[in-house]
Amino acid sequence: MKVSRRIVLRFPPLVTGQPVVYRLTKDFDLMFNILKASVSPGQDGLLMLELTGEKADYDKGMRYLKETGVIVQPLGQDVLRDEARCTHCGACVAVCPAGAFTVNPESRKVDFDQDKCVLCGICVQACPPRAMTIVF
């Protein structure tokens, strides 16, 4: 049975130089989609990704991560828009790398497709009225 889960990996400084994601692919036959990454050798690292594969392989991959010292957490966050605060200025449209925001040609209002959102948080920083928030 295939599983697909969004997870957060937190790397201690000694692990950030290791080929952890490569091993998940090669040794455990798991596919990954990186949603957000902040990893530098010798420093704490953070990697949000969607991991997909057979359940048995996924479980083996999770054991490998824990044995390596990587902290694994479920991705428990969403990007939400406060409709009352949104002025439909379009700042989010210009910065969203995933194309989750579009301008409706008829209403000239900004539409948000949460299914396209990759949780990068760029829209939160770019939003002048602070209508976008990350909810954990």
CATH-level-2 architecture of the largest domain: 2-Layer Sandwich
**What radius of gyration results from the CA coordinates?**
18 Å
Head-to-tail CA distance between termini: 29 Å
Q: Let me know the number of strands.
A: 8
* Uncertain residue segments: none
The largest sheet, given as strand count, sense and whether it forms a barrel, is: 4 strands, antiparallel
CATH topology of the largest domain: Alpha-Beta Plaits
**Helix proportion of residues, in percent?**
10-25%
Shape: elongated
Strands in their spatial order, largest beta sheet: 2-3-1-4
Question: Could you walk me through the main structural features you see in this protein, from its secondary elements to its overall organization?
Answer:
The protein is α+β, with helices and mostly antiparallel strands. The protein has 4 helices and 8 strands; from the N terminus they run βαββαββαββαβ. The protein has helices at 20-28, 55-68, 91-95, 122-126, and strands at residues 2-11, 31-38, 45-54, 71-74, 78-81, 101-103, 110-112, 132-135. A 4-stranded antiparallel β-sheet has the order 2-3-1-4. A two-stranded antiparallel ribbon has the order 5-8. Strand 2 and strand 3 (45-54) form a beta hairpin. 18% of the residues are buried.
Structure described in brief:
With 136 residues, the protein is of the alpha+beta class. The protein is built from 4 helices and 8 strands; from the N terminus they run E-H-E-E-H-E-E-H-E-E-H-E. The mean pLDDT is 90.
